[in-house]
Task: inverse folding
C-alpha cells in the first residue's frame, strides 16, 4: 500500500470539469493524492478555483473549447486523468476530453445514450430490464386516444429533466385530460409512464473496464405527492438483501449501453411483488451528498479516492470498509419550504442529542430568500448529515428530525 501511494505522487495533472461546491471534493482528493489540478468553470469565483493549480474559464458544456484550451496552455507535466462531479453536458465534456487525450474514460457516444430517459429506458426494457410501462404518442389526437388506454395513476415528466423539476402525477383520466387541454406536452420533450407504488432506493458505484463496483445502497424518502421532493437518504437500506440482484441488474445496464469507465448512479423502485424497477440511471457521481458525505461517514471509505485512482489507470480495488458500530444508522436529511412559495425569515442551527453525531450541516438558502417548491429539489432550505447509535426505528428518527428545527417563514 505504501508503494502504491508513493507511485501515485510521482507527477501529473488531473482535470476537473467544473469547479463549484459539488466539484470541490474531487479537486481536493486529487490534490491530496499529489496531483496538480486543472479546473474548468465559467465562474472565476467558483470555490474549486482557489485550490487548483491551473484555471480555465470556460463553460463545462463547451467540450471543443475545453479541449482547445488544454492543447494550447503550457503545462510542466503530462495530463493523467479527467473527471467530473457534475451532471448532464459536463459528463459529455469529460468523455470527449478523455477520448481526445487517450485517457481512461468512456465513449462520448455512450454518454449520449443516457441523455434521453425515454430512449435509454426503452433500450433497457427491450433487453428485459424492467422499467415503468411507458406510453408513446406523436400528436394531440394520438395522445387523446391514449386517455382510455392508460392505467392510472400516471406520471408525466421531462425526458431530459433533473432535480425533480416538472414531474406531475395524475390519478385519473379526468385530471390528465384537464392538463392536456391547458398545455399539450411535446412527445420529444416528455415521458409518460405508469406510477409505481413502492419504496425507492439509490445505488451508487464505479464502473471500471465495463465491470460495476457497488459502493452504497440507500433508501430514499420523498414527499408523498408530485414532484416527490427528496427528504432523506438513509443507511442501512431495508433492501440490502437485494444486493446480488442489484449488482446483476446494473451489470446488465453496463453491458447493453456499452459503458466502460466512470461513476454510475441508479434509482430503483421495489414494486408490490418485490421486483426491482429501474426509474433512471446516469454515468454520474450523483448528488444528495452521498459520495462526499454519506459514504465516508456511514461506510468509512472514500468514494473520490477510488474514482481518481480508476481515472488515472490504476487497477481498481474497492476499499474495504473500516469497522462500523453494529447498531449505527445514518441519514442525509433535508428541510423543505412549508408552502409552495415561502420567504425565509430564519434558519436555526441543528442541535444533536447525545446518541447522534453531526458529520455535515449546510444551509442551502439564506435568510430573505424565497423557496419555491416548483423548483424541485432546488427549493430545499437546509441539509444535515447524522449518525445515530441507539435503538430507534428509522421512520421514528426521521419523524423526530422533521420537528427538531423550526425554520421561520
Result:
Amino acid at each position: 500500500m505504501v508503494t502504491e501511494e508513493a507511485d501515485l505522487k510521482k507527477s501529473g495533472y488531473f482535470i476537473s470539469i467544473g469547479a463549484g461546491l459539488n466539484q470541490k471534493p474531487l479537486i481536493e482528493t486529487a490534490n491530496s493524492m499529489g496531483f496538480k489540478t486543472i479546473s474548468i468553470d465559467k465562474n472565476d469565483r467558483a470555490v474549486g478555483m482557489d485550490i487548483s493549480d491551473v484555471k480555465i474559464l470556460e463553460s463545462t458544456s463547451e467540450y471543443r473549447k475545453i479541449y482547445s484550451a488544454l492543447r494550447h496552455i503550457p503545462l510542466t507535466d503530462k495530463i493523467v486523468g479527467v473527471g467530473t462531479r457534475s451532471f448532464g453536458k459536463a459528463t459529455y465534456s469529460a468523455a470527449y476530453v478523455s477520448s481526445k487525450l487517450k485517457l481512461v474514460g468512456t465513449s462520448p457516444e455512450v454518454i449520449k445514450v443516457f441523455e434521453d430517459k425515454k430512449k435509454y429506458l426503452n433500450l433497457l426494457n427491450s433487453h428485459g430490464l424492467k422499467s415503468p410501462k411507458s406510453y408513446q404518442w406523436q400528436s394531440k389526437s394520438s395522445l387523446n386516444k391514449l386517455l382510455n388506454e392508460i392505467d392510472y395513476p400516471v406520471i408525466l415528466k421531462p425526458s431530459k429533466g433533473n432535480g425533480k423539476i416538472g414531474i406531475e402525477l395524475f390519478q385519473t383520466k379526468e385530471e390528465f385530460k384537464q392538463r392536456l387541454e391547458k398545455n399539450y406536452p411535446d412527445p420529444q420533450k416528455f415521458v409518460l409512464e405508469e406510477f409505481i407504488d413502492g419504496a425507492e432506493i439509490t445505488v451508487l458505484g464505479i464502473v471500471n473496464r465495463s465491470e460495476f463496483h457497488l459502493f452504497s445502497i440507500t433508501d430514499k424518502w420523498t414527499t408523498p405527492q408530485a414532484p416527490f421532493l427528496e427528504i432523506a437518504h438513509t443507511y442501512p437500506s431495508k433492501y440490502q438483501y437485494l444486493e446480488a440482484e442489484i449488482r446483476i441488474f446494473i451489470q446488465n445496464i453496463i453491458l447493453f449501453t456499452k459503458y466502460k469507465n466512470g461513476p454510475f448512479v441508479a434509482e430503483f423502485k421495489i414494486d408490490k411483488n418485490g421486483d426491482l424497477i429501474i426509474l433512471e440511471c446516469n454515468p454520474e457521481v450523483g448528488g444528495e451528498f452521498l459520495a462526499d458525505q454519506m459514504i465516508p461517514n456511514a461506510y468509512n471509505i472514500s468514494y473520490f479516492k477510488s474514482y481518481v485512482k480508476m481515472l488515472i489507470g490504476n487497477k481498481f480495488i474497492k476499499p474495504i470498509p473500516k469497522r462500523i458500530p453494529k447498531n449505527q444508522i445514518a441519514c442525509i436529511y433535508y428541510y423543505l419550504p412549508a408552502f409552495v412559495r415561502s420567504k425565509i425569515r430564519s434558519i436555526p442551527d441543528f442541535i444533536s442529542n447525545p446518541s447522534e453525531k453531526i458529520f455535515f450541516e449546510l444551509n442551502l438558502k439564506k435568510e430573505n430568500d424565497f423557496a419555491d417548491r416548483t423548483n424541485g429539489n432546488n427549493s430545499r432550505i437546509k441539509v444535515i448529515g447524522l449518525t445515530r447509535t441507539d435503538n430507534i426505528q428509522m421512520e421514528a428518527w426521521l419523524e423526530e428530525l422533521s420537528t427538531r428545527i423550526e425554520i421561520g417563514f
User: Anything to note?
Assistant: Residues 1-8 have pLDDT under 50 and may be disordered. Residues 325-409 form a domain with the Aldehyde Oxidoreductase; domain 3 fold (CATH 3.90.1170). The chain has four domains: 2-103, 116-130+197-324, 133-194, 325-409. The two ends are 53 Å apart (CA to CA).
